[in-house]
């Protein structure tokens, strides 16, 4: 039995205990309310204890648990300031490191994937990992022709662990929804489960990366490392040096922050039109900035396939919201599956105005300033269980083909808020999202 699959019962027990812990705290919160505590005091206490438990458990596990944790971590800017720095640190850790696997294990995987003479292909290979993530880790080497390379090696047993974690995480969708404002948590988890096979197949990931690298080859603003070799559980690509986006978030200049947010959003939104694919895993660990200013992108396992560009209603729906045409927007959302017919009578145009307005704010100015306070204000409305906005969200649906699109859009917004950046969000979407600036909004 591999290290990652050993103790699967303990992994599942930790994950399964999370919803029970939340339920217990909710009952305790009700008792405090009856005893005279304010709603704000109870909500803050509940959120703090829930976040502590959730991220402590997710941080211990590889596989699906950490992948969901990384997805949530892009929204760390939405956490209210009063919850303090420990939460920010816990979330940020989920973007980066997992305990490394021993060199002996790495060598066994390379023996199986590249053949026992794999060392002949390298001038050198560093047994100490340069980075680790949810289902694999990266080593630096020098290819036989002298090129520095990144060797991404999948953890043995990652496939079984990922599938098991994701099945268990299904039961956490209600909890995750509260901690990840604006995200359809159940759809996000279902999407991760459906795409498990693709993400675990490094051969498919290498093909995705080759497509992106070819489409952006020679681009003055972007760089995607070229793939040199691949196998089902190993990808070897160019090694590119740069400053991680997490470093720019912590210590970057105003110019670096603004430029990073602009390029990140442009890359993500333009890729369906330029490549026919959508890079579906926007978090700081997957981005870096080279010394020449080009924006680098890593990790092409989670990919949306959009050969005809973004789904047709993406632009028209955003445009109707931007123009506050909420009667037409409601009809369009019913027709296109964003409001299921059985819930149509429960959502009014006024409800949509309250729910969507914070998320179209960036479309009203040439350069929008993404701040933690702005995002916290929008997130607070979406997660106040006593308010109209939260009640509206319970009646909304995200069709399958839009789950990754909105996940990426919210990811870009979340990271831009972490960067405290000003970016021409409206111009970027206007250029790359058909129908947003058109004369007619299709239904």
Kindly name the structural category. Answer: alpha+beta
Helix proportion:
40-55%
Give the low-pLDDT segments.
1-6, 18-43
Cα shape: globular
Kindly state the mean pLDDT as a whole number? 79
Tally of separate helices: 19
Measure the end-to-end span.
54 Å
Spatial extent as radius of gyration: 22 Å
> What is the assembly state of the chains in this entry?
single chain
What's the β-strand tally? 14
| Beta strand % | 5-15%
- How would a textbook summarize the main sheet? 6 strands, antiparallel
Structure description:
- With 443 residues, this protein is of the alpha+beta class.
- The protein has a domain at 243-443.
- It is built from 19 helices and 14 strands.
- The protein has helices at residues 8-34, 39-60, 64-73, 85-93, 103-114, 158-169, 173-179, 185-194, 196-200, 202-215, 245-251, 254-275, 314-322, 326-335, 349-360, 372-383, 388-393, 400-419, 425-432; strands spanning 122-125, 131-132, 136-143, 148-154, 222-223, 227-231, 234-238, 243-244, 277-279, 287-289, 295-297, 303-305, 368-369, 422-423.
- The strands form four sheets. Strands 1, 2, 3, 4, 6 and 7 form a six-stranded antiparallel sheet that branches. A four-stranded mixed sheet has the order 5-11-10-8. Strands 9-12 form a two-stranded antiparallel sheet.
- Helix 1 packs antiparallel against helix 2, helix 1 runs parallel beside helix 6 (158-169) and helix 12 (254-275) runs antiparallel to helix 18.
- The longest helix has 27 residues, at 8-34.
- The protein is globular.
- Residues 1-6 and 18-43 have low confidence and may be disordered.
């Amino acid at each position: 039995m591999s290290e990652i699959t050993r103790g699967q019962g303990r992994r599942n027990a930790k994950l399964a205990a999370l919803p029970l812990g939340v339920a217990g705290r909710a009952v305790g919160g009700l008792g405090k309310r009856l005893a005279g505590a304010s709603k704000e005091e109870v909500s803050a206490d509940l959120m703090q204890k829930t976040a502590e438990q959730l991220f402590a458990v997710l941080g211990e596990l590889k596989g699906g648990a950490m992948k969901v944790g990384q997805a949530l971590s892009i929204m760390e800017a939405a956490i209210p300031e009063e919850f303090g720095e420990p939460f920010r640190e816990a979330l940020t850790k989920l973007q980066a490191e997992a305990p490394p696997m021993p060199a002996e294990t790495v060598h066994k995987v390379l023996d199986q994937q590249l053949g026992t003479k794999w060392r002949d292909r390298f001038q050198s290979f560093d047994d100490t990992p340069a980075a680790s993530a949810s289902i694999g880790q990266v080593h630096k080497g020098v290819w036989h022709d002298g090129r520095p390379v990144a060797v991404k090696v999948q953890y043995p047993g990652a496939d079984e662990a990922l599938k098991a974690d994701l099945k268990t995480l299904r039961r956490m969708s209600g909890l995750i929804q509260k901690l990840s404002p604006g995200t359809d948590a159940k759809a996000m988890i279902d999407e991760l489960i459906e795409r498990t096979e693709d993400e675990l197949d490094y051969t498919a990931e290498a093909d995705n990366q080759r497509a992106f690298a070819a489409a952006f080859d020679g681009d003055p603003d972007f760089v995607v490392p070229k793939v040199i070799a691949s196998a089902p559980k190993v990808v070897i690509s160019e090694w590119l040096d740069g400053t991680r986006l997490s470093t720019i978030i912590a210590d970057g200049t105003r110019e670096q922050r603004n430029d990073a947010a602009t390029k990140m959003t442009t890359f993500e939104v333009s890729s369906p039109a330029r490549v026919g694919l959508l890079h579906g895993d926007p978090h700081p660990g997957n981005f870096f900035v080279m010394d020449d200013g080009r924006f680098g992108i890593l990790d092409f396992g989670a990919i949306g396939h959009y050969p005809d560009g973004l789904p047709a209603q993406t632009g028209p729906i955003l445009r109707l919201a931007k123009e506050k045409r909420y009667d037409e927007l409601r009809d369009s959302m019913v027709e296109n599956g964003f409001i299921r017919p059985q819930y149509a009578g429960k959502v009014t145009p006024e409800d949509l105005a309250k729910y969507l307005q914070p998320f179209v704010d960036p479309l009203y100015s040439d350069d929008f300033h993404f701040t933690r306070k702005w995002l916290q204000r929008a997130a607070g409305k979406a997660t106040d269980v006593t308010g109209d906005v939260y009640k509206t969200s319970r009646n909304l649906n995200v069709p399958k083909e839009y789950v990754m699109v909105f996940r990426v859009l919210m990811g870009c917004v979340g990271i831009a808020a972490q960067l405290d950046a000003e970016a021409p969000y409206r111009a970027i979407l206007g250029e790359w999202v058909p129908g947003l600036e058109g004369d007619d909004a299709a239904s």
